[in-house]
Design a protein that fits this description.
Elements lengths: L3 H15 L8 H17 L5 H10 L14 H12 L4 H13 L14 H12 L3 H14 L17 H6 L4 H7 L11 H25 L4
This protein binds adenosine-5'-diphosphate and nickel (II) ion.
Amino acid sequence: MVSDDLIVKTADYVKKQMSGEHTGHDWWHVYRVWQLAKHIATKENGADLQLVEVAALLHDIADWKFNDGDLEAGPKAARKWLESQGQPEDFILAVQDIVRNISYKGAGTSSDMSSLEGEIVQDADRLDALGAIGIARAFAYGGAHGREMYNPDVKPELHQDFESYKKNNSHTINHFYEKLLLLKERMHTKTAKQMAEHRHKFIEGYLEEFHAEWDGER
Ligand code: ADP
Ligand code: NI
Protein backbone atom coordinates (compact mmCIF):
# COMPACT_ATOMS: atom_id res chain seq x y z
CA MET A 1 0.00 0.00 0.00
CA VAL A 2 1.46 3.34 -1.06
CA SER A 3 0.77 6.18 1.33
CA ASP A 4 0.80 9.99 1.21
CA ASP A 5 3.58 9.70 3.74
CA LEU A 6 5.74 8.05 1.05
CA ILE A 7 5.13 10.98 -1.31
CA VAL A 8 6.07 13.56 1.34
CA LYS A 9 9.19 11.60 2.31
CA THR A 10 10.18 11.06 -1.34
CA ALA A 11 9.76 14.77 -2.12
CA ASP A 12 11.93 15.60 0.87
CA TYR A 13 14.61 13.09 -0.13
CA VAL A 14 14.72 14.24 -3.77
CA LYS A 15 14.80 17.91 -2.75
CA LYS A 16 17.86 17.25 -0.58
CA GLN A 17 19.57 15.21 -3.31
CA MET A 18 18.99 17.65 -6.15
CA SER A 19 19.00 21.15 -4.70
CA GLY A 20 21.43 23.58 -6.30
CA GLU A 21 21.96 21.59 -9.49
CA HIS A 22 22.34 24.24 -12.17
CA THR A 23 22.06 22.52 -15.55
CA GLY A 24 18.27 22.27 -15.71
CA HIS A 25 17.96 19.17 -13.51
CA ASP A 26 17.45 20.92 -10.22
CA TRP A 27 14.77 20.24 -7.62
CA TRP A 28 12.51 22.90 -9.13
CA HIS A 29 12.45 21.01 -12.45
CA VAL A 30 11.36 17.92 -10.53
CA TYR A 31 8.82 19.98 -8.60
CA ARG A 32 7.29 21.36 -11.84
CA VAL A 33 7.17 17.88 -13.41
CA TRP A 34 5.49 16.54 -10.26
CA GLN A 35 2.82 19.28 -10.37
CA LEU A 36 2.30 18.92 -14.15
CA ALA A 37 2.05 15.13 -13.85
CA LYS A 38 -0.55 15.44 -11.07
CA HIS A 39 -2.54 17.90 -13.21
CA ILE A 40 -2.48 15.59 -16.26
CA ALA A 41 -3.29 12.52 -14.14
CA THR A 42 -6.42 14.10 -12.69
CA LYS A 43 -7.69 14.73 -16.24
CA GLU A 44 -6.92 11.23 -17.55
CA ASN A 45 -9.13 8.35 -16.50
CA GLY A 46 -7.68 5.40 -14.66
CA ALA A 47 -4.20 6.61 -13.72
CA ASP A 48 -2.74 5.46 -10.39
CA LEU A 49 -2.01 8.87 -8.89
CA GLN A 50 0.44 7.62 -6.31
CA LEU A 51 2.55 5.81 -8.91
CA VAL A 52 2.49 8.97 -11.06
CA GLU A 53 3.64 11.14 -8.15
CA VAL A 54 6.43 8.90 -6.90
CA ALA A 55 7.75 8.25 -10.44
CA ALA A 56 7.63 11.99 -11.26
CA LEU A 57 9.60 12.73 -8.09
CA LEU A 58 12.24 10.07 -8.84
CA HIS A 59 12.43 10.48 -12.63
CA ASP A 60 15.75 12.39 -12.71
CA ILE A 61 17.27 11.02 -9.50
CA ALA A 62 20.36 9.69 -11.36
CA ASP A 63 20.14 10.74 -15.01
CA TRP A 64 22.34 8.90 -17.59
CA LYS A 65 23.69 12.27 -18.75
CA PHE A 66 25.47 12.62 -15.40
CA ASN A 67 26.39 8.97 -14.87
CA ASP A 68 28.64 8.19 -17.85
CA GLY A 69 25.65 7.19 -19.96
CA ASP A 70 24.59 4.46 -17.49
CA LEU A 71 20.87 3.96 -18.20
CA GLU A 72 20.48 1.80 -15.07
CA ALA A 73 21.75 4.46 -12.64
CA GLY A 74 18.26 5.99 -12.29
CA PRO A 75 16.33 2.73 -11.83
CA LYS A 76 18.96 1.52 -9.31
CA ALA A 77 18.75 4.73 -7.25
CA ALA A 78 14.94 4.59 -7.32
CA ARG A 79 14.99 0.96 -6.08
CA LYS A 80 17.41 1.77 -3.29
CA TRP A 81 15.19 4.56 -1.99
CA LEU A 82 11.92 2.64 -2.30
CA GLU A 83 13.42 -0.47 -0.64
CA SER A 84 14.60 1.71 2.25
CA GLN A 85 10.96 2.76 2.60
CA GLY A 86 9.77 -0.87 2.64
CA GLN A 87 7.82 -0.61 -0.64
CA PRO A 88 6.50 -3.77 -2.35
CA GLU A 89 8.32 -5.27 -5.33
CA ASP A 90 5.54 -4.67 -7.89
CA PHE A 91 5.45 -0.96 -7.04
CA ILE A 92 9.26 -0.70 -7.24
CA LEU A 93 9.26 -2.41 -10.66
CA ALA A 94 6.55 -0.05 -11.95
CA VAL A 95 8.52 3.03 -10.83
CA GLN A 96 11.77 1.62 -12.27
CA ASP A 97 10.10 0.99 -15.62
CA ILE A 98 9.09 4.66 -15.84
CA VAL A 99 12.49 6.02 -14.70
CA ARG A 100 14.29 3.70 -17.18
CA ASN A 101 12.28 4.72 -20.24
CA ILE A 102 11.48 8.39 -19.71
CA SER A 103 14.46 9.98 -21.45
CA TYR A 104 14.56 11.36 -24.98
CA LYS A 105 17.10 9.38 -27.03
CA GLY A 106 17.16 11.04 -30.46
CA ALA A 107 14.84 12.12 -33.28
CA GLY A 108 14.70 8.69 -34.90
CA THR A 109 14.13 6.70 -31.69
CA SER A 110 10.79 5.71 -30.19
CA SER A 111 9.16 7.20 -27.09
CA ASP A 112 7.05 4.20 -26.06
CA MET A 113 6.02 3.90 -22.44
CA SER A 114 4.44 0.68 -21.22
CA SER A 115 2.00 2.23 -18.71
CA LEU A 116 -0.45 5.13 -18.65
CA GLU A 117 1.39 6.44 -15.59
CA GLY A 118 4.66 6.38 -17.59
CA GLU A 119 3.03 8.27 -20.43
CA ILE A 120 1.83 10.93 -18.00
CA VAL A 121 5.22 11.43 -16.34
CA GLN A 122 6.99 11.52 -19.72
CA ASP A 123 4.50 14.09 -21.01
CA ALA A 124 5.04 16.24 -17.91
CA ASP A 125 8.85 16.02 -18.22
CA ARG A 126 8.63 17.04 -21.87
CA LEU A 127 6.26 19.94 -21.24
CA ASP A 128 8.95 21.34 -18.94
CA ALA A 129 11.39 21.25 -21.90
CA LEU A 130 8.98 23.48 -23.90
CA GLY A 131 7.82 27.09 -23.56
CA ALA A 132 9.65 29.89 -21.77
CA ILE A 133 11.00 27.51 -19.14
CA GLY A 134 12.19 25.07 -21.81
CA ILE A 135 14.16 27.84 -23.54
CA ALA A 136 15.77 28.88 -20.24
CA ARG A 137 16.66 25.25 -19.46
CA ALA A 138 18.22 24.65 -22.88
CA PHE A 139 20.57 27.64 -22.51
CA ALA A 140 21.35 26.75 -18.90
CA TYR A 141 22.27 23.21 -20.02
CA GLY A 142 24.29 24.49 -23.00
CA GLY A 143 26.20 27.00 -20.85
CA ALA A 144 26.94 24.43 -18.16
CA HIS A 145 28.31 22.10 -20.83
CA GLY A 146 30.43 24.80 -22.51
CA ARG A 147 28.39 24.76 -25.71
CA GLU A 148 28.15 27.66 -28.15
CA MET A 149 24.81 29.50 -28.08
CA TYR A 150 24.56 29.35 -31.87
CA ASN A 151 26.83 28.72 -34.85
CA PRO A 152 25.20 29.02 -38.29
CA ASP A 153 27.92 26.80 -39.82
CA VAL A 154 26.82 23.80 -37.75
CA LYS A 155 23.48 22.44 -38.97
CA PRO A 156 21.06 20.33 -36.90
CA GLU A 157 21.17 16.54 -37.18
CA LEU A 158 18.20 14.22 -36.69
CA HIS A 159 19.88 11.44 -34.69
CA GLN A 160 18.66 8.01 -35.68
CA ASP A 161 20.02 6.21 -32.63
CA PHE A 162 20.79 6.87 -28.98
CA GLU A 163 24.58 6.52 -29.44
CA SER A 164 24.83 9.40 -31.91
CA TYR A 165 22.38 11.54 -29.87
CA LYS A 166 24.48 10.94 -26.75
CA LYS A 167 27.77 11.93 -28.46
CA ASN A 168 26.30 15.10 -29.94
CA ASN A 169 27.76 18.32 -28.52
CA SER A 170 26.69 21.01 -30.95
CA HIS A 171 25.34 24.47 -30.16
CA THR A 172 22.15 25.07 -28.18
CA ILE A 173 19.99 26.39 -31.04
CA ASN A 174 20.44 23.01 -32.74
CA HIS A 175 18.91 21.34 -29.69
CA PHE A 176 15.63 23.09 -30.54
CA TYR A 177 15.53 21.36 -33.94
CA GLU A 178 16.98 18.07 -32.73
CA LYS A 179 14.62 17.66 -29.79
CA LEU A 180 12.41 20.49 -28.53
CA LEU A 181 10.36 21.10 -31.69
CA LEU A 182 9.80 17.35 -32.07
CA LEU A 183 8.26 16.86 -28.63
CA LYS A 184 4.76 18.14 -29.44
CA GLU A 185 4.10 15.20 -31.79
CA ARG A 186 5.31 12.76 -29.15
CA MET A 187 2.90 13.71 -26.37
CA HIS A 188 0.70 10.78 -25.29
CA THR A 189 -2.20 12.34 -23.37
CA LYS A 190 -4.83 14.74 -24.65
CA THR A 191 -4.18 17.19 -21.82
CA ALA A 192 -0.44 17.37 -22.54
CA LYS A 193 -1.03 17.66 -26.29
CA GLN A 194 -3.12 20.78 -25.67
CA MET A 195 -0.55 22.32 -23.33
CA ALA A 196 2.29 21.46 -25.72
CA GLU A 197 0.56 23.30 -28.56
CA HIS A 198 0.90 26.65 -26.76
CA ARG A 199 4.43 26.05 -25.51
CA HIS A 200 5.54 24.84 -28.98
CA LYS A 201 4.21 28.00 -30.67
CA PHE A 202 6.06 30.12 -28.11
CA ILE A 203 9.35 28.39 -29.04
CA GLU A 204 8.66 28.80 -32.76
CA GLY A 205 8.08 32.54 -32.24
CA TYR A 206 11.26 32.78 -30.18
CA LEU A 207 13.35 31.08 -32.91
CA GLU A 208 11.86 33.30 -35.57
CA GLU A 209 12.86 36.38 -33.55
CA PHE A 210 16.31 34.93 -32.79
CA HIS A 211 17.09 34.33 -36.48
CA ALA A 212 15.67 37.70 -37.53
CA GLU A 213 17.90 39.50 -35.02
CA TRP A 214 20.89 37.35 -36.03
CA ASP A 215 20.32 38.29 -39.68
CA GLY A 216 20.08 41.97 -38.78
CA GLU A 217 16.43 42.22 -39.79
CA ARG A 218 15.28 43.61 -36.42
P1 ADP B 1 15.07 13.96 -21.01
O1 ADP B 1 14.04 13.93 -19.95
O2 ADP B 1 14.48 13.82 -22.36
O3 ADP B 1 16.26 13.08 -20.74
P2 ADP B 1 15.89 16.12 -19.65
O4 ADP B 1 14.57 16.59 -19.14
O5 ADP B 1 16.72 15.31 -18.73
O6 ADP B 1 15.66 15.38 -20.96
O7 ADP B 1 16.73 17.33 -20.18
C1 ADP B 1 17.01 18.33 -19.31
C2 ADP B 1 16.94 19.68 -19.94
O8 ADP B 1 18.16 19.95 -20.62
C3 ADP B 1 15.83 19.80 -20.97
O9 ADP B 1 15.21 21.04 -20.90
C4 ADP B 1 16.57 19.59 -22.26
O10 ADP B 1 15.95 20.17 -23.37
C5 ADP B 1 17.90 20.21 -21.96
N1 ADP B 1 18.95 19.63 -22.78
C6 ADP B 1 19.27 18.33 -22.91
N2 ADP B 1 20.27 18.17 -23.82
C7 ADP B 1 20.57 19.42 -24.26
C8 ADP B 1 21.49 19.96 -25.20
N3 ADP B 1 22.30 19.18 -25.88
N4 ADP B 1 21.49 21.30 -25.39
C9 ADP B 1 20.68 22.11 -24.70
N5 ADP B 1 19.78 21.68 -23.80
C10 ADP B 1 19.73 20.36 -23.58
NI1 NI C 1 13.41 15.60 -16.28
